[in-house]
Specification:
Blueprint: H1 2-8, H2 14-33, H3 40-49, H4 51-65, H5 73-89, H6 95-119, H7 124-142, E1 147-148, H8 152-158, E2 161-164, E3 167-170, H9 171-189, H10 191-201, H11 203-208, H12 213-239, E4 241-242, H13 250-260, H14 272-292, H15 298-326, H16 334-341
Antiparallel strand pairs: 1-4, 2-3
Helix pairs in contact: 2-14, 3-14, 4-9, 4-10, 4-12, 4-13, 4-14, 5-6, 5-7, 5-12, 6-7, 6-12, 9-10, 9-12, 10-12, 13-14, 14-15
């Protein structure tokens, strides 16, 4: 039992423990306050309504664990909806041709940003910010109007409903669950996942150990682009339309869900499953406000902002506590402590100058 409690208090697992406890508390509060809240229908509804955000947050988790950031994900989602709508309604392409194409484009887009970040030494914030503007601008170059999708196959896939207990799961929710399972395997059971954690912990040390830093960093952003495009496909199935203004602010929601899920912004620490509960917390807050019926939807943003601040401060406190444990509880650097405790050597007292002997000629 003591060992289990010690594992929960570990700095690497404590944030996700707090996240899970908060999700349970919010769901329990809703169950007490509102009739019908505690049901499988509400729980599955959280997954159905936030499946696209979960997929995007999974990709964001890999990026933040590696020590980076990706601000382009929301724009890539919007661009994906536009490409799906144009391909289905104007070009009359089949779904099996549209989906692989947009997934490939999203992956290449992310890989290109990763290459710029690594080979040119550019900041991820700037590169992905430029990627956000490029993708959003491309949406309006293609069309400035909303395109409704009437293609039968899209409607058939969107209409898939799998009963689970008292609720149902849509095709998008099933895709999100499959993505989650694949992401957990990649993060914790593959060499690529271990390299991501190593680079996020200390990129220079990872390079000195001979790890493929360039390939891993490019792969991380390619994976984020793939998840963004896949999230865009799921979002298209959810709204059955394409529009350049869709998914505005989704990159911030994904970052918030990832951070609330226990992933440290400094990199090296984080769990994919934590992002699931982070998305669940955001969705639960929205459902609570909907059940209340008297609060404005903007309260969702206010609460999320407050939670984000709290979790950032919690991360900082945990980091400081871990640093103090590593340095014996003083918070001082180990080398400094070593220097302070080392015996002091006193210089010998100066002696009076003695005459220098000289050789005299006989």
């Amino acid at each position: 039992m003591t060992r289990f409690l010690g594992r929960l208090a570990d700095p690497r697992t404590l944030p996700i423990v707090v996240t899970i406890a908060l999700f349970i508390a919010l769901f329990g509060f809703g169950s007490v306050m509102y009739t019908g809240f505690f049901s499988m229908q509400v729980l599955t509804g959280l997954l159905v309504d936030n499946a696209f955000l979960l997929i995007v947050a999974i990709g964001m988790t890999f990026v933040i664990v590696s020590g980076g950031i990706d601000l382009s994900v929301g724009s890539v989602v919007a661009l994906t909806t536009i490409l799906c709508a144009v391909g289905a309604e104007r070009l009359h392409w089949p779904v099996w041709a549209i989906v692989p194409l947009v997934l490939a484009l999203g992956t290449l887009y992310g890989a290109a940003m990763g290459a710029l970040i690594h080979y040119f030494g550019l900041q991820p914030f700037i590169v992905t910010l430029a990627g956000m503007f490029l993708a959003r601008g491309a949406c309006f170059l293609i069309t400035t109007q909303s395109i409704t999708i009437n293609e039968r196959t899209f409607h058939a896939i969107a209409g898939i409903s799998v009963p689970v207990g008292g609720g149902t799961l849509s095709a998008g929710a099933l895709i999100a669950l499959a993505t989650l399972a694949a992401a957990i395997y990649v993060a914790h059971f593959t060499r690529f996942g271990r390299n991501v954690y190593a680079i996020g912990g200390n990129e220079r040390s990872a390079l000195l150990m001979g790890l493929p830093v360039a390939r891993t960093k490019i792969g991380v952003y390619a994976l984020s682009g793939l998840c963004s495009a896949l999230g865009g496909v799921v979002f298209t199935l959810y709204v059955l339309s394409g529009y350049g203004l869709q998914a505005q602010g989704m990159e911030l929601d994904a970052i918030a869900a990832t951070v609330i899920g226990g992933t440290l912004l400094t990199g090296g620490v984080g769990y994919v499953i934590g992002s699931v509960f982070g998305v669940g917390i955001l969705g639960t807050i929205q459902v609570l406000i909907t059940f209340d019926g008297t609060l404005s939807s903007w309260w969702t943003r206010i609460v999320i902002g407050a939670l984000l601040c709290v979790f950032c401060m919690l991360q900082r406190v945990i980091e400081r506590h871990a640093a103090r444990r590593r340095t014996g509880g003083t918070g001082l650097d180990a080398q400094r402590r070593k220097d302070d405790t080392a015996p002091t050597r006193h210089a010998p007292p100066e002696e009076d100058a003695a005459p220098i002997p000289t050789m005299r000629r006989a």
